[in-house]
Amino acid sequence: MRDTLSSTISSVTDLLLRRPAAPDVLTEQTGAAFAPVSHVDIEARAVSKSFGTTPIFSDVSFRLARGEATALVGANGTGKSTLLRCLMGLIPTSGGSVHLLGQQTDETTGRQMRNIRAQIGLVSQKHNLVPRLSVLSNVLHGLLGKHPGIRHWSHSLAPQSSRETAMQALERVGLADFAHRRADRLSGGQSQRVAIARAIVSAPKVLFADEPCASLDPSAGEDVMELFFRLVRDENVTVVFTSHNIEHALKYGDRVLGLAQGRIQLDATAASLSSADLRGLYD
Amino acid sequence: MTDTAPPRNERARFELARFERPSAISFLGYALGLVIIFWCLAGAGFSLEKVASSPPRFADFAARAFPPNLDPQVLTRLGWKMVETLQIAVAGAVIGVIISVPVALLAAKGLIAGPWVNQIMRTGLSFIRAVPDIAWALVFVVAVGLGPFAGMLAIVIDTIGFCGRFFADDMEATDKGPAESLTATGARKLDVVACATIPGSLPAFISTSLFALEKAVRSSTILGLVGAGGIGIELKVGFDLFDYPTAMTVILMIAVVVIGIELVSGWARTKIIGEQR
To answer: For A99, which of A15, A19, A226, B75 is 20 to 30 Å away at the CA?
Structure first.
């Protein structure tokens, strides 16, 4: 009996402490990156993805702890955005498994997946707002995971409590005065701030951001990143963001994952890295 | 001559390549195309002799049709028939457009229904479009009797065939980004469609609906030929009784109304959709 218990504890400990696959090239590992964590929000286990016969990446493994901000970097075409979509269960993996908020995404029913997704948010490279609708309606749509149905289709139909929640989210991104303006009348930076409001309105546990400032000029991009991380740092939200901007990856990420040649080639704390380390991924 | 200049023969070929000699297969293809065109002309009874002899006959018709019949009583009667025609067109187009939205949702790939349902709906819409509106009017005259209601039903079904297909295509072509952002936050398919796909397709919907209205007005003017209401019956009676002035009045009224509807529709399209399309 004692042996069985000891064996079980040992297995669980191994599982918790399991490190990613051995690196091929640039991989750096630090104690902080793989220290035992109390709460894992995202775990990728040997994930691979191919489109038809074209492999995108393979054997991608990592665990992301609650409250950790992880930058996913790599050259164009290395599959950063594809990996984000696999993590969110928006597209199926070709192999391996993804555990999001404690559940294996490919083993969940549609309803279970929606319940998981109700606890996450997404900010895309292109803000992805619905152009002809009001800013407030767009933010309210971020609540559809928690409150499905016609009452959250438009700000005109929404219950007062939801309207207030959405307005608070808009206040946090500094756009409360724009609530009734049409989304297609905003500048690029304002649109991205509305997209952030939509992503945080449901108080998600995990936020994904796919090159959130790629379509903005450097100044607006910096503002958006500052705002985004100021908002999520306070709430202990787990963040995964992709970026081509090495300075952003090092400044805003606690941890950096580098994709190159279809594999994770770099996994280290941002504090232990320099710009030169990341530039190697783009060679 | 520089090192990079092509050899003389190559250069001559390059300059003469404006018209390339067709390959044997291309030549056969062109020849087959010409044969098919002549075969179709023969089947259509194309006759240069008849074309040459038609101007005097047309002039004779014009001489008998002009001036159009502008008798106030006739104009009042035709005016009310035109009003009925527009009523048939507007009612049929509006109901058709409304029904087209759920039909298109089922026909569009990757939205709310599976591939089998998509295919069945698309096939049904193709069938509706394959049958001309005048044939639908004949069917509805049998089903509900003579009169404008049969015409309106024909317009409804014709509009569903037209709008159902184009609405579905528009929704499939809509930017997938907003839908993905909502899906990522756990929204149901129906919510995603209602909040992202349909609003994103709205400019295209409005444009297609206005084209459907123009089409409905044009169709409704001839449905009367088979007893399905509207001004078409006046045209038929005019020709049957050799009352060409009245028939000409009907033709001119139809032209004015159809052109007017196209102008209003174009204005509305610009006004509502703006510079997006």
So the answer is: A226
